[in-house]
């Protein structure tokens, strides 16, 4: 078995873009500004309060335009009633998905994770109460709630007894309404009642911290079609590790959008600890040094040799 | 000229190192947010984010002067942060600014000389932490000498000798965000300095061609400096995306 990347299947691609579907513009809004998007030389970098250049926006007007985080619509009173402009609230590179008619902003990768519905996260149990497990998603934020029974096949008699410090792979079910609302997590899919995408308690293995940008990148890369052999999102580190560690029995990985990566290679017998550490180090170094594809390959070779995993 | 560096630190959510080219002050800023506020401080503003600013001097512990400048920074930055965006109401945005280098300030010296550098470091750190902002800004310090000349970014020694000191923060849309003045001056002087601040921050030469010599390379606008620093960091962070285009 090669590297098995846990979940992000394509049906969750919404989470990869982190779109907020509540902000929708009526179709044809930008009809009057139809222009050919000509120069693709350098993508636009926007600062807070910058307007989104209209000729960059998708020109397909059949669907409403969807705005990702970091962009907002403002109405400006003008002589002809009111005029709408899209402005940025964060600094980032404008990313346009013409196929899905969506605009979003790629911001700094080191930022803090803000829970969004349907995101996969790796949460740590802090303590448990009668009905809930209280979990930590990001440091210094209020605990997220995970129902004692929101596991696959859980009933009052049979439910996982998670202790403090244990990790779960869960999905954000709701973030509540209004200020200071509680974040709720779940480990089952509401539609099927099954733990889709590997949700549930994570036993064994080890969790590594990466930046939220890197986590999003890993998720996007793994949701891309398998037959695509080009490096996706500039990431070759995982496929390279999978190839080199295949003889040891491969590894399992789960990526949480809150900047955590869980790695397990329990199949590797005596090399399991070494292999886990090697994978974690490769991911963290790729993230922190912002390595290019060929540097990632070099790093994998270097780390595996240092740990005496391959000759 | 040394341009500001963003996202240099790994642990905070956002950080920036800013070295003022003229005065030499070196500020290291870090931002964490949104985080939980301690002890019911969230109840003061239940619908918005609370901005907390801490200024740490390089050589001593923070005192009255730091509390004073923290108050100024908090009021400016609190107005710029969009505290009602998703995930931010009732949470805190904690900004820590460490004075890492520059001329030594004595107790009782005017804090206005360092205020623009602190503002720039705080803004860049918040941008790096992706805190939602309604606008960006840039700030400049001016001293008015005994002869009535307006000097941009005077050194602490020159600042002590000047009759009045002015700090202006101009938003990216040209609004006056902050006006802190010290010393004796009249309205005409203030208006002149204000015009000068607009031209320095936005990079447009004022009507009477007031952009003087001697500013050299620094005559490029401060807004441009901020934008360049952010663009550089974004392009290097997303180099993998740019390669594939």
UniProtKB/TrEMBL annotation, chain A:
<dbReference type="GO" id="GO:0071051">
    <property type="term" value="P:poly(A)-dependent snoRNA 3'-end processing"/>
</dbReference>
<dbReference type="GO" id="GO:0071038">
    <property type="term" value="P:TRAMP-dependent tRNA surveillance pathway"/>
</dbReference>
<dbReference type="Pfam" id="PF15985">
    <property type="entry name" value="KH_6"/>
</dbReference>
<dbReference type="InterPro" id="IPR026699">
    <property type="entry name" value="Exosome_RNA_bind1/RRP40/RRP4"/>
</dbReference>
<dbReference type="GO" id="GO:0000177">
    <property type="term" value="C:cytoplasmic exosome (RNase complex)"/>
</dbReference>
<dbReference type="GO" id="GO:0000467">
    <property type="term" value="P:exonucleolytic trimming to generate mature 3'-end of 5.8S rRNA from tricistronic rRNA transcript (SSU-rRNA, 5.8S rRNA, LSU-rRNA)"/>
</dbReference>
<protein>
    <submittedName>
        <fullName>Exosome complex RNA-binding protein 1/RRP40/RRP4</fullName>
    </submittedName>
</protein>
<dbReference type="Pfam" id="PF21262">
    <property type="entry name" value="RRP40_S1"/>
</dbReference>
<dbReference type="InterPro" id="IPR041054">
    <property type="entry name" value="Rrp40_N_euk"/>
</dbReference>
<dbReference type="Pfam" id="PF18311">
    <property type="entry name" value="Rrp40_N"/>
</dbReference>
<dbReference type="GO" id="GO:0034475">
    <property type="term" value="P:U4 snRNA 3'-end processing"/>
</dbReference>
<keyword id="KW-0694">RNA-binding</keyword>
<dbReference type="GO" id="GO:0071034">
    <property type="term" value="P:CUT catabolic process"/>
</dbReference>
<dbReference type="GO" id="GO:0000176">
    <property type="term" value="C:nuclear exosome (RNase complex)"/>
</dbReference>
<dbReference type="GO" id="GO:0003723">
    <property type="term" value="F:RNA binding"/>
</dbReference>
<dbReference type="InterPro" id="IPR036612">
    <property type="entry name" value="KH_dom_type_1_sf"/>
</dbReference>
<dbReference type="InterPro" id="IPR012340">
    <property type="entry name" value="NA-bd_OB-fold"/>
</dbReference>
<feature type="domain" description="Exosome complex exonuclease Rrp40 N-terminal">
    <location>
        <begin position="65"/>
        <end position="104"/>
    </location>
</feature>
<dbReference type="InterPro" id="IPR004088">
    <property type="entry name" value="KH_dom_type_1"/>
</dbReference>
<dbReference type="GO" id="GO:0071035">
    <property type="term" value="P:nuclear polyadenylation-dependent rRNA catabolic process"/>
</dbReference>
<feature type="domain" description="K Homology">
    <location>
        <begin position="205"/>
        <end position="268"/>
    </location>
</feature>
<keyword id="KW-0271">Exosome</keyword>
UniProtKB/TrEMBL annotation, chain B:
<dbReference type="GO" id="GO:0000176">
    <property type="term" value="C:nuclear exosome (RNase complex)"/>
</dbReference>
<dbReference type="GO" id="GO:0000177">
    <property type="term" value="C:cytoplasmic exosome (RNase complex)"/>
</dbReference>
<dbReference type="GO" id="GO:0034475">
    <property type="term" value="P:U4 snRNA 3'-end processing"/>
</dbReference>
<keyword id="KW-0539">Nucleus</keyword>
<dbReference type="GO" id="GO:0005730">
    <property type="term" value="C:nucleolus"/>
</dbReference>
<keyword id="KW-0698">rRNA processing</keyword>
<dbReference type="GO" id="GO:0003723">
    <property type="term" value="F:RNA binding"/>
</dbReference>
<dbReference type="GO" id="GO:0016075">
    <property type="term" value="P:rRNA catabolic process"/>
</dbReference>
<dbReference type="InterPro" id="IPR050080">
    <property type="entry name" value="RNase_PH"/>
</dbReference>
<keyword id="KW-0271">Exosome</keyword>
<dbReference type="GO" id="GO:0071051">
    <property type="term" value="P:poly(A)-dependent snoRNA 3'-end processing"/>
</dbReference>
<protein>
    <recommendedName>
        <fullName>Exosome complex subunit Rrp46</fullName>
    </recommendedName>
</protein>
<dbReference type="InterPro" id="IPR036345">
    <property type="entry name" value="ExoRNase_PH_dom2_sf"/>
</dbReference>
<dbReference type="GO" id="GO:0006364">
    <property type="term" value="P:rRNA processing"/>
</dbReference>
<dbReference type="GO" id="GO:0071028">
    <property type="term" value="P:nuclear mRNA surveillance"/>
</dbReference>
<dbReference type="InterPro" id="IPR027408">
    <property type="entry name" value="PNPase/RNase_PH_dom_sf"/>
</dbReference>
